[in-house]
Structure to design on (379 residues):
């Protein structure tokens, strides 16, 4: 989705509001939730739900109570209760859908974590908020210099200022426990602010920073993925993928989350396949599993005594051999089974107008006839 400020102009070039998801049009922020109950009226006698969902930088969202009965709608900039002071955020959701989101995140309606909405942000609040956001990049750069001087084994990934500019949250990643008490003192003294350190995992760090994956699209974790399920190498094994860390690892250095997306389809298809440990008994000897093509239903086997050659069999043929082995019968050789497989026709592209020529756009070189030139000069 895109807002009016981010939309394209007549010539197709994007305008680019450069607000990085902070514009107030309600359709530009990350992880936008469509309020499909907005046009529906509540039953008679029922009061509107007074808790709203407010989002902050990088999709961080919290719930706040509207104790002052303010007229609030999605996209409004509000000043909410902070710790300490106040913070500035954008209302991302309101109404009955907030109940669903709170139940999903297991947040009770009367929880102490649900703080108050003070007021709608004034022009002064917005100016202070924008100045604080503009300081984040320089604070992050300077913070990394201080971190390097102390020699701590941690990585400072992001900085987020509170709306009033009196507090900053430093997000970091570390493989082991780090004593950053001196770091907090140096940061507070350098920037004259209240400092809070918050550790994030490698996946959440990639979600906050964003980027492009190997598929060419924006990272799923920074656009729509909200829950990070455990990914193991068994997901790659079930899909017959090579266990190459360079290909299976994402930007976060962990296994790609997309390995789980199609796993259920593969597991369902594998129910019809025999186990890979199954040994086939033939007239020529015992054969063991090599590899398979799940969706084409093809399996490759090789003889134990001669592993130099692989034999391609269909799933039905393998099941037939297994049935014979259960009846204590030997099947025919794998060569005879392979000869009965119908080969798929090779699709070849025709040369319509010289499309397969790599030099079809090159200018033809003119041949120089030196004999003619000599004759002309002799005359």
């Amino acid at each position: 989705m895109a807002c009016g400020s981010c939309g394209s102009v007549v010539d197709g070039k994007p305008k680019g509001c450069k607000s990085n998801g902070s514009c107030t049009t309600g359709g530009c922020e990350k992880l936008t939730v469509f309020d499909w109950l907005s046009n529906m009226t509540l039953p008679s006698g029922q009061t509107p739900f007074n808790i709203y969902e407010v989002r902050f930088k990088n999709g961080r969202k919290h719930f706040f109570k509207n104790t002052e009965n303010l007229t609030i709608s999605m996209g409004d900039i509000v000043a909410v209760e902070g710790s300490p002071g106040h913070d500035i955020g954008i209302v991302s959701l309101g109404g009955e859908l907030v109940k669903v989101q709170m139940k999903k995140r297991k947040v009770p309606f009367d929880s102490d974590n649900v703080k108050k909405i003070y007021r709608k942000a004034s022009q002064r609040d917005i100016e202070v908020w924008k100045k604080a956001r503009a300081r984040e990049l320089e604070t992050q750069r300077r913070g990394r210099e201080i971190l390097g001087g102390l020699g701590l084994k941690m990585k400072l990934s992001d900085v987020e200022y509170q709306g009033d500019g009196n507090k900053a949250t430093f997000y970091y990643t570390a493989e082991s426990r780090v004593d950053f008490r001196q770091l907090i003192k140096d940061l507070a003294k350098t920037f004259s602010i209240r400092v809070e350190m918050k550790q994030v995992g490698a996946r959440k760090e990639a979600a906050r920073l964003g980027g492009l994956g190997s598929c060419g699209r924006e990272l799923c974790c920074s656009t729509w993925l909200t829950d990070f399920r455990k990914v193991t190498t068994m997901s790659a094994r079930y899909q017959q993928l090579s266990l190459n860390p360079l290909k299976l690892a994402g930007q976060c250095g962990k296994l790609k989350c997309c390995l789980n997306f199609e796993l259920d389809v593969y597991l369902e298809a594998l129910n019809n396949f025999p186990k890979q440990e199954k040994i086939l008994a033939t007239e020529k000897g015992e054969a063991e599993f090599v590899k398979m093509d799940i969706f084409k239903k093809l399996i490759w086997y090789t003889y134990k005594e001669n592993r130099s050659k692989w034999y391609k069999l269909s799933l039905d043929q393998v099941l037939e051999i297994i049935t014979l082995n259960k009846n204590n019968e030997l099947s025919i050789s794998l060569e005879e089974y392979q000869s009965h497989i119908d080969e798929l026709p090779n699709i070849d592209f025709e040369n319509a107008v010289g499309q397969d020529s790599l030099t079809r756009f090159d200018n033809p070189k003119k041949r120089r006839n030196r004999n003619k030139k000599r004759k002309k000069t002799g005359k």
Summary: The two ends are 77 Å apart (CA to CA).
